[in-house]
Amino acid sequence: MSVLSDPALEARIEALQAESRAQEPAVFGYFAQRAQKGDLSWDALDADANRFMADKLIALEPIKAEFAYLLCRSLRARRVVEVGTSYGVSTHYLAAAVRDNGGGTVIATEYEPAKAARARANFEAAGLSGFIDLREGDLRETLKVIDGPVDFVLMDIWTEMARPAIELIGPHLRLGAVVLADNTDQFRHAYRRFFDYVADPANRLRALTLPFDGGLEMVVRV
Question: Residue 31 pLDDT > 80, yes or no?
Fold first, then answer.
């Protein structure tokens, strides 16, 4: 049973998750081949990797997305930031949480124009567009303006962008705000600059790696 209690929304999400799962063999095969060649760096994906990933969903696993939904509900989140939207699968959970909390905004970010267009169509079809501010382009520009305190952040993006994102969002985190960052065990080294920011006492953050597949970092503003 889904935590959403919204069968129509759950069906839409499952269709997108199925599309994402169908792409996984190609994604795993591509990165395995690149790793075998030894010409891939997780610190900064090159042009070929970005080209390959331009139409891939890479949806957050359902259990992690449901956890994010429940955290948003428990925090009574009204302002949420999603770093890395893709086709908007996890955004559906965040927007549903904001809706169920009585209203608010999910600031979503997506670099690829085609993905942003598909995400907008998905949000409209789900009836969630009114809760989402989708910002298309480089997040180092699109997140420069955040009007008000942030309650929750979901960070599911290439690790090279994690540090720029937290630098922009961090000053807006309200006391008790939560940041979730995906795959922090799997890509610990690539996340090192993000963890340097988290570890800086001036930023007043505490973190714990949760035992989800690949690791899910829970960072709290204290």
Answer: yes
For the chain, the average pLDDT equals 95
Question: What tens digit of pLDDT does each residue of 156-173 get?
Answer: 999 999 999 999 999 999
Q: Residues 38-50: pLDDT tens digits?
A: 887 877 788 898 8
Q: DSSP for 142-196?
A: HTS---S-EEEEEE-S-GGGHHHHHHHHGGGEEEEEEEEEETTTTTTTTTHHHHH
d(CA 83, CA 138): 11
**C-beta of residue 181 within 8 angstroms of C-beta of residue 219:** yes
How many helices and strands, by DSSP H and E, does the chain display? 8, 7
- Written as six digits, the tokens of 205 are 């953050």
Q: How many CB atoms lie within 10 A of CB 163?
A: 17
Specify the DSSP class assigned to residue 138: -
Prediction pTM value: 0.95
Q: Give the torsion through C-alpha atoms of 97, 92, 183, 219, to 10 deg.
A: -20
